[in-house]
Amino acid sequence: MSAQELIGFLHSDNQIVQTLALQNVLAFTSNNNLQKHLFYSNNFQPICDLILISTKKGFLNQKDSLTCLINLADNINVRKIILNFKFSHLYQEHKPTTDNNDYIHYLIHQINSDNKNTDLMCMLLSNLTLSNYDHSTRNIDLRNNQHSFPNHSLDDDPNELESDNEAENIIDELDKKRNFKLDLNLSHQQLDVLLDSYLKNDQKHDYLSYVFINASISKLNLDFFSENNFQNLFKFLIFSDPSKFSKLRRLAASSILKNLLFNTEIHQNLLNINETVDTDELDDIDSPTNDFLTYLLNPLISSKFKFDIDEEMNLPTDLQFIEDEKNFETDFEILSQYLQSILLLLTTKIVRIYLRNRKSIYPIIRELHKISNNRKILKLCDKIVQLLMRDEEDDIKTRLNQNTISNDYNEESDSDDDKIVEIL
Questions:
Q1: pLDDT tens per residue across span 291-323
Q2: Which helix (H) or strand (E) holds 345?
Q3: Which of 73, 348, 391, 394 measures 20 to 30 Å from 98, CA to CA?
C-alpha cells in the first residue's frame, strides 16, 4: 500500500482503521522524510484529520496525532491551518465539548484540565506561538521518542561582537525580532489560564516555558508581565533556582526577564527607584532588601565565593551568608542571559548609578569571573565591571572618542543614556 493511501485512511470514521493508519504514517512526519509533503495534499485535508483525531478519546491515537502535528508544524501553512481551524460546518459533528469553536481554545482547555497528553499539547502550542521571524520548531525524534529543542531565546549574542557599530546593528536586529507579529498572540486571559497550570510545577507543563518565552518577545504582552508590580514576572523568577527546578523552567525565567528588559521604561520600577528622584540623590537612598535583585543575583552566586564582611552585608538579605552547598547556575546559556539582563539594566543611567552605589553586583561578578572558564561568561563579566566601575563622565568621554554619539550630545544626554546600544 502506498504512503498516500495510508495517509488517506486518517479520514476514515472507523477508529481501528485510524489507529492502524496513524501507526504507519507517524514515521512520515520526521525531519527530512521524503513522504512528508503528502500531508499537504488535498488542500491539507490530512492535517484537518489529525486535528480531529487529537480531540477524540483514546490515549494512543491522541498521542500519535499530536506527535504528527508537532513535527508537521515546521511548515508555515500547516501552522496556519491549525491556528485557523474551527469546529464548524463540515466538522461540527466532531466538535469536542468546549464553549469555543477554535482548536487553540480546545488545547488550552485540555492543558488546564491535565489531559494525559498535556506534555504534547504544550509542545504543540509552543510551536504555534512562534514569531514569524524565526520558525525553529521543536520536533520529536521518532527513533527514541526524545524531544529536540533549539536554543529559543533571542539568538544573537551581543557579547560576541567586537565593535560598537556591530553592537548597534545587532541590538537593532533584536529589537526587530521583538516587534515581529507572533503567529499566535494569546490573550492575557488565555495566558493567565496557562500560567495557573504552569505554576503547578508539574513536569508535563514544562513545555509551556516556550509559550511564555515567545509571549515575552512581543511588546503587546508587556502589561501581562509587568502589571500589579510585576506580579507575573516574579512568578517566573521563582523558578530561577538551579538547585530546585528543571532547565526548561530556569530557561523561561532567564529568557523572559531578558526579553522584558529591552523595555527600558520598566527598569526603575523593577528596582523600586522613585521615578522623580534625581541622579545626584541616589547616594542618599537607603538600600532596602530588593526582591528583584535577589532573584537576579541568586543564579549568579555560589557559597564558594569569597566576600569580605562589608561586601557580604551589601548583598540582598536573602543572599547573605548562604548555605555551603549553594552553587551558581551551571548552564552557560541561562547564566549568560542573567548577565545580559544586568547589562540591559545598566543602559539606564539612573539604574546604573543606583546599582553602582548598592555595591552588591561587583563582588559577585568578580568572583564569578575568577571561577569561570567560559569565554562568553568572562566577556560579559568584563563588560559589566567596566560599566559599574567607571564614572559617568569617563563614560561620556569614551563614547565621544569612539564617535558613537552625535556632537549635540549635551542637548540630548537624557535620551542617549537609555539607549541599549550603549552597553556593548
A1: 899 999 999 999 889 999 999 999 988 889 887
A2: helix 332-345
A3: 73
Torsion of CA 188, 192, 193, 195, to 10 degrees: 130
Rounded to whole angstroms, how far apart are CA atoms 168 and 164? 6
Residue in this structure with the C-alpha cell 549568579, named with its chain if needed = 300
CATH class, domain 3-148, is mainly alpha
DSSP line for 81-145: HHHH-BS-GGGGGG--S-SSSBHHHHHHHHHHTT-TTHHHHHHHHHHHT-BTT-----EEETTTT
- The residue among 130, 115, 128 whose CA lies nearest residue 197 is 115
Residue ranges of the chain that CATH labels 1.25.10: 3-148
Structure-block grid coordinates of residue 96: 469536542
Residues 366-380: tens digit of each pLDDT: 999 999 999 999 999
Q: Which residues contact 109 (CB under 8 A, 6 or more apart)?
A: 98, 100
